[in-house]
Amino acid sequence: MIAVAGGLIFVANALVSYWRGAPSGPDPWGGSTLEWASASPAPPWNTAYTPVVDSPTPLWNDGGALQAMDGIAIDRREVLVTSVTDAAPLYRQKSAGPSIWPLIAALAVTAMFLGSIFSPWAIVAGALPIAAALTGWFWPSRPRANDGPLRGRR
Amino acid sequence: MTATRDIEIVGDLSCLPASASGARHLVWWGNIGFMLIEGTGFALAAAAYLYLMTQAGVWPPAGDRLPGLLWSGIFTAGLILSELPNLWVLRCARNKNVVGVRWGVALMAVVGLLLLVPRGLEFAHLGVSWHQDGYGSVVWLLLVLHTTHVVTDWGDTVVIGAWLFSHEVGDDQFADVEDNSNYWTFVVLCWLPIYLLVYWAPRAI
Description:
The complex is a heterodimer.
Chain A: H1 2-20, E1 50-51, E2 66-70, E3 78-82, E4 89-94, H2 101-116, H3 121-137
Antiparallel strand pairs in A: 1-2, 3-4
Helix pairs in contact in A: 2-3
Chain B: E1 7-12, H1 26-55, H2 70-81, H3 83-94, H4 98-124, H5 134-166, H6 171-204
Helix pairs in contact in B: 1-5, 1-6, 2-4, 2-6, 3-4, 3-6, 4-5, 5-6
């Protein structure tokens, strides 16, 4: 009874807030941590720049500007890799873009395991589409070689 | 309600390198993690073998022949020798030697293919079928598990090798070759205890 009442109050509060409440903005409570530096609703990139953090409460800096670094690519996906303890920037790691191949690889793996219930040879036969899907997934996007026996045509 | 914070730019990351090699590279650690996962698989399979061995009165069980030593010995010797070109490829990758990694990876693809011949004959001379008894199952499990690693790393080597010839070779490719080379070393090292277990443990007791 009490649990249900508590649940109903929670739902009622959510509905009333949704219909009649004022928008809270990105940082209604003066939060201490980085998620409160993002816009509301948060965009996929969270913050446009890479924040520089030197305390557990980076947003409690007496209202000063949030220190950040620029230079992470916006034309392709990449993430910043830092040292483990000091978090000193080391290099920019390329991130994979959207691709259909992971889905195809997952379906091929599913087919192989389903087949393996009925015959061990399904593992051998099923490995081929998996290998093909993985090869498609990792197909190079870099330019063709300009030397060596398999160089690209000029 | 508080407005979104002002941003003060204090540095530029665009001058950082776009790749790294060795333990600085994220993918290098991914490779180590993969070795841990696969190594656990080998350890579990070996534990299953040892468990069955302790539970059986006679090992291998009566009626099963001992596994043949000729082709397994040739495979093991070849696998150990393959570390010579493999470590040379690793050095080429670290020195960013384009011609070296191209032909070295191609050589490793040939070596991997050659090794599959004695490995195939090993299966033919195991002396037991995989569904004969628990001994047969666990011996085949160990050998199939290791063969899977040889075959997948061989496939990986072939694909990487083809792309090294057909496409530009940059720092990321040298890191790929390094990871592939390290993984082959893992496949070699994992085989040694399994070889002792499959071929010499039944002869030692």
